[in-house]
Amino acid sequence: MTSGVDLSSTTKETIPSGSRRYDDTHAGQAKRRSIPIGSLNVREGDDEASHPFGPVPNGWTEYTHVIEGIPFFYNSQKRIITDAYIRTPAILSRIETYYTQISGVLGSLDSTEYQLSKMDIYIDPTCDPQTGQKICAYYLVDHCRHSIAFLRQVDTGIVGLPDARNTIHLERMLRGEYWTHCEYMPRPDVDHTASARKLQGQLASLMIDNISSEGSTSPFTPEECKYYLKSVNPSINEPQFLNWSVEFSFAARVNSLLIQSQIINLHGEQCARADRAMIVTDQRPPARTALYLQLSKFMFDCPVTHLNRLEHAWTDRIIYSHHWKKLLSELIEEWTVAAGVGGLVWISNIVLFTSTSSTIALLLLGVSTIATVYGAAKALLLIRKHRSLGQYAVHGSQYLQENEKYATGLQDLSYEYSCPWACALWAGALTSISVLWMILNQVVSRVLELFLSLGFIPPYALCTGTLMLGAWTCGRVVPSDAKKITSSTKTNSHIQQYVIRTK
């Protein structure tokens, strides 16, 4: 596109996802008000409000987002759309000034190829956060191509877009920004019936792919696709109803999510990700060292099991919302069971402490109790931590990136996840060994008491019997060794025939 040299330096390009609609603000203080006679007309304005405002200016139409409740305004003659509150005269004056500048440049650049005059102009009067200078943020909305545009060439980093691999990737990002704009400011007079029907076909294909393939790249579960299909089904909802109200904003949001999934999976590109397990960006997990595998054996292979699950969910450093939710629920359930098992072992140890005086058994029970307490505490801390995490892919991606190491990947995280069950298993093993030791002590002591209680057997007879038992045992071992010695010194038959015997 030819550079718009006449565009003011205070006019900056922006994108819908960079909107300030979710920034904190102050609504003002409430106060006692007088109720007028008759019906209250809110369209006349309010000079006594905390933030005074007037009526909707002539030529403008005010809409309110059905879900979020944020008002936005559209001027059909000038094709201006904005979420700035133009019922405040100062804001309206700035928007009209900026429109005069933008429309002049737009007219000089317009052609049958660009068709800029058919596009809506989004204008947001704002201030530079660094200098405080008043600036105009703008972009053009192309409803024909389902994209956004600008009046001069700009770098992706300046407007807040990530780096693009190629023009296909860049076109997907601009298309995603268009649907974000439609989600934020859905115009009722824009016909999106064709887009809704196309979305219906995409959702049906994604549902079938997700049901029939384990490696589906669908961002939605079959249940989610089913509900989305019901919402955009033309046989249930009238087309004119789809273009407005909740359905229009909903269709725009789903389209935006699908575009994001297509960008992640390189949809339409030569190296597109056809299966979720494919690695197309060469972001493979680090190799597992011998030390890691040995420590994993010491922990009953729990770290390797957890690492396999984490790396499968985090393939190519991409995670889906439904996979993240499933992983969280499975981990929380696993740690809950581990804490319960540790509690049972702890109760057993307390009972066994009162029933034995053996030093070795007490030592084993003490170590087992420490392991159960640590494992249960670690399980409860992990459960509390993971219940506070978000349930969507963005939260899972942020959490895994924070715990990912350059040299070891998610191996340290797999150790942490394995502690509850490893401690529970080691505690159970130590408790079992201590019980076995106590049983052997009881058996040996009872046998000795039995022999000592038999008074007719003199002590020297017991000693003689013990010696005889030892001699018999040695006698069973020595002949087998003697046979080995004899067989090793025996002359082979083919050598024997050459020996000359003498008297």
From TrEMBL:
Record key words, sorted: Membrane, Transmembrane, Transmembrane helix
Polar residues composition-biased segments: 1-17
Statement: the UniProt record of this protein carries the keyword Transmembrane helix: yes
Chain residue ranges for the region called Disordered: 1-49
Transmembrane segments: 335-354, 360-383, 421-440, 452-474
Name by which UniProt lists this protein: Uncharacterized protein
